[in-house]
Amino acid sequence: MRQRRRLLLPAVALTALGLTTSQALAAPAPTKELPRQAQQLAKGGKQHAAKVQGKVTGRSAFAAAEAGGDDGADEAENSAEGVAQYTEARTAPGVIAPGAYGAAWAQLQSLPHTGGSWNHVTNKPYNSDDPRYRDINSNSSGGSGYVTGRITGIAADDDGYVYAGGANGGVFRSRTGGGNWEPIADKLPTLSTGTLDLDERGRLWYATGESNTGATSYVGTGVYLLADPQHGRFEPRNRVGGPELESTVIHALRFGGGKVWAATSRGVWSHSSTDLSGPWKLEFAPNPDYLPGGSKAKDPAAPYKNIANDIAIDPKDPSKVVLAIGWRGGDTYNGFYSKAADGSWQRVGSLGELPTDAANVGNVTFARSADGSRYYAIDQSPLLTSTDPDSGLKGIYVSKSGSPYGPWTQIADKDKLKDSGSALQDEGYQPGIQSWYNQFLQVDPVDPDHVYAGLEEVLETKNGGASWTVPGPYWNFPFSCWSIDPSKQTGDCSPTTHSDQHAVAIGSYHGKPSVYVGNDGGVYSRPVAGAADASGHATDWKSLADGTIDTLQYYSVGIGKDPADRSGKGVIVSGGLQDNGESILRAGDKVMGSNFGGDGADTLVDPNNGCNIAEEYVYLDMWVTQNCAVNNGAALDDPSKATSYEVAPPDQKLGGAGARFIAPITSDPKNGDTWIAGGRHVWVQNKGYAIRSGSEWSNAYDLGAGHLATAVATVDGTVYAGWCGPCNNQGFSRGIAVGKTDGTGWHQLNLPVDGTLPNRYISSFGVDQKDAQHVFVAFNGFSRTWTEGPGAGIGHLFETRDGGATWTDVSANLPDVPATSVKILPDGALVLGTDLAAFYRAPGEKNWKVLGKGLPTTSVQQLKTGPDGRLYAATFGRGIWSIDPRSLSDDDNQGDDNNQH
Prior knowledge:
Elements: H1 36-42, H2 74-91, E1 95-96, H3 100-108, E2 119-120, E3 126-127, E4 151-156, E5 162-166, E6 170-174, E7 182-183, E8 193-198, E9 204-208, E10 223-226, E11 250-256, E12 259-264, E13 267-272, E14 281-284, E15 308-313, E16 321-325, E17 335-339, E18 345-347, E19 364-368, E20 375-380, H4 382-387, E21 393-399, E22 408-412, H5 414-418, E23 440-443, E24 451-454, E25 458-461, E26 469-472, E27 501-509, E28 512-519, E29 522-527, E30 542-543, E31 558-561, E32 571-576, E33 582-585, E34 592-596, E35 603-606, E36 609-616, E37 622-625, E38 644-646, E39 665-668, E40 671-678, E41 681-685, E42 698-702, E43 708-715, E44 718-724, E45 734-740, E46 747-748, E47 762-767, E48 775-779, E49 787-788, E50 797-800, E51 808-809, E52 819-824, E53 830-834, E54 838-841, E55 849-850, E56 860-865, E57 871-875, E58 880-883
């Protein structure tokens, strides 16, 4: 966790919904009372560790109200910064037209595969509280236990079947009330989950396109329906309607009057829930000119102008519907809408205590009771998000009439929840601070006054909101029961859930009802009538991340020999994760551990000793260990016993102005002691893993004001650094600087906007170890076919043999999809990771094949080779996989596995 985490949206064929706003703040002095991440959170918003400088990028002018930047809102601001930057890489220099991802997927189906099969490396339980790693820079002992990646959809029935949707991992099914999971959606063209719902007939509806307005979320290809979810699997032919909902984010599905309603990033749509053949009908879009095909569709504000969050249908009269509409950053169209007598949708003027003014209607979630007697709602306020340093939550509300028209009464606000047992007590991070990102609501089907609500924490009321408890606190660090003792998971505290709640459902197994919650750490369950201690914290949470569900979202991977493995063949695999720290899997381990907390960004691992690890948190906040960060917690009382050390280059001290959220780091493959880190400056250090201070870096080159490194590579003292700046759609610019590690010979390559190299985000370099003048460069984003922006160009991979003086497009038959990582194999073959699959080009060939079989359709963020000779892929949604390059020459052109890559 650490307080400074991830954040998200449309990465593929996406719409950029991220916005940024923040302050550069002073770093806190370390204390010994709590692990470092918890120290920073406890010190409040004015002293958070990862800093960003206030700026507004990649979004419309109406969102600029958030750009004032409040010191106390630092966490939400850094979240939003990461949101925008992940999106920028895939959208700049312009808006992406709908259909780009679908077209790339269709092209993929025609490509042959190489020989060889992928091996799933991380299909093991992942213990965030692993007692081996109680260094104060991990989250171990926080109480989250076994975790996996973000879960954004859950459905459960009364026969013990549970369905969980990963943010970019597809749908998993359990037949045993949770656990023993199996994937059931891997043949679909997208694995991004918006929501999952079981209807009254027991059919499972899968809305794709993650339901978060962040930047590590991917858009989807519509809604799919599985008639027999207990036995079947999703197929492309299961799509409801036509292509109307492609390249959208779907926040919610609601049912009533023979219709299914969808709240999307392009308005509210409906479809018959019985006749599935016809197209979806657009019910309401507040600003239709900004929809695809409209007169303002290419306006940079277009992605923000028709956002729908939820739909409330009157259980007594399904013709009465209330729509929750609005961008979480604020716009004049925000509000609640219903149909007037003339059939038009009009803004609702009053709903009682539930606000209806545009400034206070943002991200909204509805839930109604099974008997129709209650409606509940959570409302995030754009005004508070931009002005309140502690929270953006306007409140939780109930309509005791059971009608979405109310009257609504407020039953909770930030302060009431804070005083109900919350772990979030300090300035700058209190309940609802990320209510634009974290929301769920679920009413107990047998008790309309019993409600579960999700924000950063899991909340519960048993009396209709008169009082609340926090059965799932953010973590256990602030409580007196907590201890770092390795013999206990979390001291005398009971286990809690991971933070950042997104999905919820209630179901039964063997007649025993349970509540299931999905968050940034996976799926957790407890009895609906669960037990709690005197503070209201649950004593009976169970993590369902048993290793059979892997939705882990990796930014990076690193591999080194395991010094403890007697055979000499075993390796340690490490990787940086969205909101789940750094994972470490040692040879022979049956359970992965977490030795660094928070977000894990880029990673370096010594190939000769996998316990030598450098982990980037965010913004080049780098930490190094030489014993795998093994620690029994002794450093809590004696800092000299720490086993990991902060070695951040000085750019990190400048905050977000000095480096990207996920900033690049690398080492020279021929001299592992030479490291390169890219912020505004290109930094070099030559002590390898023996470095102990950020002061040991030297400044090799200043990329220039406003220029931030996006990719770095080095061989034999020659460095290539790709940069962007501005990095958003407005005036996007990119470049490549080349020079020596000793600071000499630096120059900027001449890269005209309309030249051979596209004016898009530079994501990766592959430098030939035999000749540092021979280089490949990969570009993110989509080509000009889909991108309305200056110089977007064509192609994703380019080659130079003269150090960048001239370039040749070697994309050949690659699908037009964002490219993320290029790697030259020892025999001269090329491998390329993209947001869709991994590809292979044999030595001497021009065309590409899909690399191996068995890799799910998901984003391949980084490719690296290990000392065991295998190629490793870090995917953003389905964990880490590996393949033996020696098996690739056995051609197999059969298309049996074309839906799984």
